[in-house]
Amino acid sequence: MHDVMNSIMTGQTTDAQIGAFLVGLSMKGETIEEITASAKVMR
Fold first, then answer.
1. End-to-end CA distance of the chain, in Å?
2. Tens digit of each residue's pLDDT (9 = 90 or more) over 8-37
3. At what angle do helices 2-9 and 15-28 cross, to 10 degrees?
4. Residue partners of 42: CB distance under 8 A and separation at least 6
5. Which of 5, 9, 8, 6 is nearest to 30 (CA)?
């Protein structure tokens, strides 16, 4: 999760990749660990 969020935050991913990631994450359901890792990268 850290690497994916880092790629998103640094502009290394396309809008389509971000959309696919978010749809997949939503379908799977986010875990507390994933949310925490995402928040740490966004700081």
1. 15
2. 999 999 999 999 999 999 999 999 999 999
3. 150
4. 5, 9
5. 5
Question: Hey, is 10 helix, strand or coil?
Answer: coil
Could you tell me the residue ranges of all domains in the chain? Answer: 2-42
pTM above 0.70, yes or no: yes
Rounded distance, CA 27 to CA 12, Å?
23
Exposure b/e, 5-30, CB count within 10 A at least 16 = b: beebeeeebeeeeeeeeeeebeeeee
